[in-house]
Design a protein that fits this description.
With 308 residues, the chain is mostly helical. It is built from twelve helices and two strands. A two-stranded antiparallel ribbon has the order 1-2. One of its GO terms (biological process) is retrograde vesicle-mediated transport, Golgi to endoplasmic reticulum.
Amino acid sequence: MSSASLAGGTGLYGGFTKLCKGLAVVLVGGHAAVQIFPAAVAYLALIPARTIPFAWNLITAGYIEQSIYGVIASVIGLLFMGRFLEPIWGSREFVKFIFVVNFFTSLCVFVTAIALYYISREENYLYMPVSGFHGVLVGFLVGIKQIIPDQELPVLRIKAKWFPSIVLLVAIAVSYFMPEPAAYIPMLVFGTYMSWIYLRYIQRRPETKFMGDPSDDFSFASFFPEFLRPIINPIASVFARMLCGRSDSMTDAHGDALEDTPLPGSDPIEATRRRERGARALEERLAAERLAAARTAEDPQSDAAANV
């Protein structure tokens, strides 16, 4: 994917994309709906005891923010991270990612709530309304980790590959001081894992005929510090076989495992190219924004000169 293709037609440098703006309107509209009609929460949010027969809340729950702080954070995260990810993935893949991660995150939360009820016999797990876009937002961070893992955040000097892990760690730490952490912690955890599963094994890669990303830089253990990886790797391989039916291996577009074939995703050259594309897209966007800001600063000066 060339720089020109990244710059053209998708609104990467001209502001937020139309798709992200439309999704932001959906989030704001969902929040407004449950504020105006509070009873709508019972039908739109994920309430495990009501999911059968109201199965549609597995989809709608992800787009319903019950608090003003949640909708503000979700809209800002969607607009800024979507402006980076959508031009690289393409609009169709961007929407597919959101739908898949949102649905399977809600499904995992539903199953977990039912399991916790049978273990603890606390009905709160069955009737607590769970909703929010934060499962997809943390999934966006996983996508950024995949594309530009070594890019540093300018102020904090933290590499992008650690964004999902830090967000989860902070959220879990804060949950001890927040009421009803079960309303959002499971969505963050499963949003991270489901987005990694999708990008690792399922996402079609336009630059090759393969699916997924088997590179070592994007392994499950890469979410953890180096000293924990010897412990995490064997556990991760067991779960990969259980959930995906195979160990970490490349598959073709038909889902067939490839034996005795070099893995493009694990090829250092291909992995370097992928990171360079992401880093180049980010650098060009920042340069374009600096240029736009400079032009904006010059306009008042030219207007003053014209008036004189």
